[in-house]
Amino acid sequence: MTSGLDVKQFREDIIRPTLFYLDMYSMSAETLLLGTAIQESLLCYIRQLESGPALGLYQMEPATHTDIWLNYLGFRPELKEKMEDLLAPFPSRIDQLQSNLFYATAMARLHYYRVSMPLPEPDDIGGMAAYWKDHYNTELGAGSVQEFIDRFNNFV
After folding, report:
1. Cis-peptide, bond into residue 91, ω within 30° of zero
2. Do the beta carbons of residue 37 and residue 10 sit within 8 Å?
3. Which of 46-50, 73-77, 118-122, 149-153 has the lowest mean pLDDT?
4. What whole-number distance in Å separates Cα of residue 97 and Cα of residue 124?
5. Is 35 in contact with 152 (CB distance < 8 Å)?
6. Fewer CB atoms < 10 Å away: N or C end of the chain?
7. With contact defined as beta carbons under 8 Å apart, do 93 and 87 qualify?
């Protein structure tokens, strides 16, 4: 299985520097974000197929994006400023989930950062898959733990 983006470059040139910029780097976070992007978009699709609301390589829904800004960043001015610095003047914040890889990666990290459970070890792909399912895709989502594992192993 191949993607539209080079997995190694995406990991090293987008995910890793974004995590360091946010002061939220760990190998576990890096692996989880890579797995999330692979699972959600195959590192290829920038909007949900079949006219769903999800946007970007991480397929974040606008409601989740808005919730992070209102209920998380709204109470963390220093982090909010860092996020604002990632934004380009055009297009809108929500549309930048599709066009701004650093911003989309930061938003996905913030989504997971709000979870109180610690991240799995970076080599525990099954644990990463279960964490993604529980905290990103949820039980209502169409993806499965096994699909995440299979896709991750095929791409990485």
Report:
1. yes
2. yes
3. 46-50
4. 28
5. yes
6. N
7. yes
Radius of gyration of the chain (CA): 14
**For the chain, what are the domain ranges?**
7-155
**Residue 36 CB partners (closer than 8 Å, separation 6+):** 58, 108, 132, 136
127 contacts 14 by C-beta, under 8 angstroms:
no
| The model's pTM | 0.96
Look at residues 95, 80, 129, 112 and name the one whose alpha carbon lies nearest to residue 15: 112
**Which amino acid would we find at residue 54?**
A
The answer to whether 23 and 78 are in contact (CB under 8 A) is no
pLDDT in tens, 138-151: 888 889 999 999 99
